[in-house]
Amino acid sequence: MTISQIVEKKFKRTKDKSLLFASDFPEYDQDYIGDLLSIYVREGKLVRLANGVYLKTTVTKFGPVFPSPTEIAEALAAENYFGLSTQVPMKIVFLTNGSARKLTAGNTTIEFKRGVPKNFAFKDKTMATLCLALKSIGNGHVTDEQKSVLRNFLNDYIQEHDIKSDLKLMPQWIQKMLNEIINKES
């Protein structure tokens, strides 16, 4: 399979309103990957948000539909926290059961986003954040490299924390994947 075909396959598997990173292909020349992704930008299928960061858009008769800045920031922040992405978010987002609001501190924007009650049912804040990170990546889009990062994290984490009740709050595809990672012998 050629590099172009690999990028095309990843693009087709990426859900609309999801982020795609040039760094998703670390084994290939990043300039070449950028050139391939730029083809999708010219076709209007991707929008370049920043250097190496692309958004797969939903195209309607009115033009592309974008996720909210909050959705983008949350996805980047959660993935970055677990080492699933190396992108640095420009905005920090916290889920709250209180009022939604934005604060600016210097060059940093901090947003408090109102979350649904299920987001606050987790006993372990780390597991809630992990769930958010995996949801932002999407079902079927977690790479083997990301699974390896998760395996290393979870092997240490479950030694000191009981995550069984929190696993039950996660979508079924995440439960299945994490159980496979935990139960896989290194």
Task: Describe the model.
It is a single chain. The chain is built from seven helices and eight strands. It has helices at 3-13, 30-42, 69-81, 125-137, 144-160, 164-167, 172-183; strands at 18-21, 46-50, 53-56, 58-60, 63-65, 91-96, 101-105, 108-114. The strands form three sheets. The chain has a three-stranded antiparallel beta sheet with strand order 1-3-2, covered by helices on one side. A three-stranded mixed beta sheet has the order 6-8-7. Strands 4-5 form a two-stranded antiparallel sheet. The two termini are 29 Å apart.
Please outline what is shown here.
This protein has helices at 3-13, 30-42, 69-81, 125-137, 144-160, 164-167, 172-183; strands at 18-21, 46-50, 53-56, 58-60, 63-65, 91-96, 101-105, 108-114. By secondary structure, it is α+β, with helices and mostly antiparallel strands.
Write out key terms for the chains shown.
single chain, 186 residues, alpha+beta, three-stranded mixed sheet, 7 helices, 20% strand
Poorly predicted runs are none
Q: What is the H/E string? A: HEHEEEEHEEEHHHH
Radius of gyration: 17 Å
What is the typical, i.e. mean, pLDDT? 77
Shape: globular
Largest sheet: 3 strands, antiparallel
Helix content: 40-55%
**How many beta-strand runs?**
8
Strand portion, in percent? 15-25%
Q: Biggest sheet, strands in spatial order?
A: 1-3-2
Structural class: alpha+beta
